[in-house]
Amino acid sequence: MREFIQRVIWLIKVCSYLFYPFAYQNFEYKALLEQLKVVGPSSLFITMVTSFFISLVFSLQIVKEFLYLNALELVGSVLAISFIRELSPVLTAIILIGKVGSFFTSELATMVVTEQIDALFILGINPVYYLILPRIIAVVIMLPLLNIFSLFTSLISSSFICFTLYSIDPAFFFASVFYSVLYIDLLKSFLKTLVFALFISIISCIWGITTVGGSKGVGSSTTSAVVTCLIFIFISNFILSYLMFDNLISTFQIL
């Protein structure tokens, strides 16, 4: 119960700084650049590899069904809808939770256990400015960009498998990718990744900075943060999909 109250207090504190414009007068921009390097380049390779093979498997299962239905003109648009609306944002968020969220939690938890956070308070340095806000903003900036790379990789790998196994010309595939509401769906996917980024970064940082119990607490906080982030991502994904992507039938009618 005490740990829950501490997390709620830190959540209120972090949100008050995050959405208060004048708080950025003392913002550590050098720390932001360091966190951007941690979040972006370190996660790009695994994001693209995961997107490549997931899209290969997904296309392998989906395209042959459309061949049976003689609906090749819908292959590119259906795959693009699947990647833009669900697969790429969720997969990229899950990768970021495992790669970056766990790192943030364990790093901050170790600083708490070794009393480095107390040293910052003694030196008059606000840990929210110095440690938490740069990490949150770095994730908010980089997750939408990683999602774009994931989408690009998914479409390329899908066109590759369609051409290799089913002799679907890449020009025909990409012509069907540009369906009528593509840009609206891209914008909604961008908004979805922003929400995911806020959940991942805030939960990871707060769970790390409220760690108690020594080295054992570091492992417990990291595990709890990863599980909590995953739960929030799946729940918020359902809510956002229901609110933003409930026009699937109308989309196919437009097509």
From TrEMBL:
Pfam families (alphabetical): MlaE (PF02405)
Subcellular localization(s) per the UniProt record: Membrane
Residue ranges crossing the lipid bilayer per the database entry: 7-23, 43-60, 120-143, 155-182, 194-213, 225-245
One CC-aspect GO term: ATP-binding cassette (ABC) transporter complex
Mode of membrane association: Multi-pass membrane protein
UniProt keywords, alphabetically: Chloroplast, Membrane, Plastid, Transmembrane, Transmembrane helix, Transport
Molecular function GO terms recorded: phospholipid transporter activity
Family of the protein in this entry: Belongs to the MlaE permease family.
Protein name in the entry: ABC transporter permease
Source species: Rhodomela confervoides
Encoding gene, per UniProt annotation: ycf63
